[in-house]
Design goal:
With 404 residues, this protein is of the alpha+beta class. The chain has helices at 3-13, 20-61, 85-88, 129-132, 152-158, 193-196, 204-210, 231-240, 252-255, 257-295, 297-305, 310-345, 353-356, 367-384, 386-389, 397-401, and strands at 64-68, 80-81, 96-110, 115-123, 136-139, 147-151, 165-170, 178-188, 199-203, 217-218, 220-225, 247-251. The protein has two domains: 3-56 and 260-401, no CATH class; 70-244, no CATH class.
Length: 404
Amino acid sequence: MNFPLFIARRLEKNTLKGSFSAIVTYIAIAGIAIGVFIMILAFAILEGFQTKIKDKLFSFGGHINVTQRGLKDSYQEVPLSTNTHIVKDKKSIEPIAHLQVYAHQAGVLKTEDEVMGIVLKGVGKDFDYTGFQENMRAGKFVNLEKEIVISQKIAQKLLLKVGDSVRIFFVQNQKAPRFSKLAISGIYETGMEEFDERIVFGDIRFIQRLKNWADTLVGGYEIRVKNFAQLDSTEVYKVLEHLTYEMRAETVTQKFLPIFEWLNLLDKNVQIFLGLILIVASINIISILLILIMERVQMIGVLKAIGATDAQIRRIFIFKGVLLILRGMVWGNVLSLGFCNLQYYYPFIPLDAENYYMHTVPIAWNWTAFLGVNVLVFITVSIVLLLPTLAISRIQPIRAIRFD
């Protein structure tokens, strides 16, 4: 029989309700539970937030954008041909998960009372409708030549809804303006002003006719790679090997550098925050264990008097502390996973979409991170348990037995 573990379990069972030991025990369990709860919740929200933001960016441009070399931030594009190696053999090129073509054309939306400048983004049958579906707020995504999808912000400014028709004017090379009347098939919303204030989706064939392009000419390619985590280190270079000299590639991390720097800063902030929580939890368990040791001074003296070694007695209180940690972790996991489930399936915590790009707090289920939090807490706090038990070696049996 493991003598220290046996004594630790007996101490756990014999703690009287309402006694000082019970109160201290509940404080220790609550402290660990709150720490685990906050850590898991922080990881779930942070990863959910980062995932949502990245998905919104990817739905508008993939991971890599390929255009004519020399052009940057221009909507008057020099066309690229689709009769290229990278387009024809996209399925056989190892890093490419999906490739789609697009074209842009600046224009003006006009209703009876309002006028608004926009950029029409033409997409084809290869467009990833599934990836964009989460942004849709009403109607369906454009699939016909005479329909467009506008943003919620544009719809509110122009007082438009699904099914309405709107005139769109284009000015090209000092020629007389050309216009078309298009129906609104859907309304999207990302919460990101860069997109919502100007981007309107339409059929790429409409822009090809507008620019007198052949059906093999497009404004550029949008590429999604298989491993985004390796985008800037390896994947982009593998794609560059298949581009011709007149093509220019820009990654999403380069195009939206401030956003990705902000997301990286959030990572660092959470790491600091989690470190502080671990320190608080460690100080809490040290204080609790010291109180429990002081309360059991007479018991320690008796055990030493009958031959128990300092190491054995230290293990009693270490086991006692570990039992408290495990109970606290169980409660922390139950509370955090329950809260995450509620927020995931029934979002009840709102966000300001103007500042956070979404209406409710997002949750991501990263079981590796959740397991890592539990392992980190258990190992760190368990190691810290060694510190207060050092006081046991200073306790002398005779004085301890007479201790009151």
